Amino acid sequence: MPRTIWKGAVSFGLVHIPVALVPATTRQGIDFDWLDKRSMDRVGYKRINKTTGEDIDSENIVKGVEYEKGHYIVLSDEEIKAAHPKATQTVDIVAFVDARDISFLYIDTPYYLTPDRRGEKVYALLRETLIQTGKVGIANVVLRNKQHLAVVMPLGKALVMNTLRWADEVRGAEYLELKEEALDPDLAERELDMAKRLVEDMTEKWKPEQYKDTFQDQIMDLVEKKAREGKLEAVGGPEEALDRRSADVIDLTELLKRSLAAKPGKARAAGEEQADQAEKPETKGKTAGKAKASKATASRTRKAPATGSKSSKKAS
């Protein structure tokens, strides 16, 4: 079943269409963790004072906006929260425009709109109207306390809502400062004909599944190859290291208890004999041999920490 992230309605005029919002994309990628190469412990992020280099507790951090160079206006969490737009649970269509007028530069994140609460008929009505008129709806919507401009458009038998970038977030072509040779070139007819033929020869149907992220594939192939070769590094954080130490202590304590309970007389005798032999140089080698054997027994009994490898791929 698709994962619904928002429920509300598409509204225009007096028309009200109950809908649910479903992500139309997923993000993939390699999740690289930072590790300390000396100990294979995980490396985290620290909040530090950039002037003193000291660690900063979260209660001492405030949010500020740079008003002038080196001068900030500090805002409280309450002031920031009050400025957030209130969620209305409505995709409020404010206008309809020609679909071809919206540049792809404005398209941000796509979502599917699915009919909800028996809204199938009016959902289909909006879809067919947009298809036959060649129009799309420009809407305002609030998602996760953030205000978005959006466009509602048909896609096959479904309706899609794409969030849009605001006008001040999109740079015009004049930003490139193109030279006159690129703006108004003197192209020969023969050059244009050859270029058109090349484009026609390379034209094929759009099949997105035939294009792959080669970096991701090569990294995962390398990870699998190293795993097969046994090149696995045991990685543990402070809590895991503490758990392992605790387990060792418990196991060793239990071993000693069992040893003393099984043969208390021999255990005491062995202790006395070891004290006597510590004063005799000729028995030093024998004592060392017994100690070494005792360590080997404890090592075999002690539970070894588990090792493993974890690799993941990432997924709007």
Whole-angstrom Rg: 34 Å
Helix-strand sequence: EEEEEHEEHEEEHHHHHHE
Oligomer: single chain
Considering DSSP H and I runs of 4 or more, what fraction of the residues is helical? 25-40%
Largest sheet data = 7 strands, mixed, barrel
Give the spatial strand order of the biggest sheet.
1-2-7-10-9-8-6
CATH class of the domain at 6-27 and 84-167: Mainly Beta
Any low-confidence stretches, pLDDT <50, length ≥5?
Answer: 244-250, 269-275, 277-316
- How far do the termini sit from each other? 17 Å
Name the overall outline: extended
Strand content: 15-25%
Please give the CATH architecture of the domain at 6-27 and 84-167: Beta Barrel
Overall average residue pLDDT: 78
**Helical stretch tally:** 8
Number of strands: 11
Find the CATH topology of the domain at 6-27 and 84-167: Ku70, Chain: A, Domain 2
Q: Which class of secondary structure composition applies to the elements?
A: alpha+beta
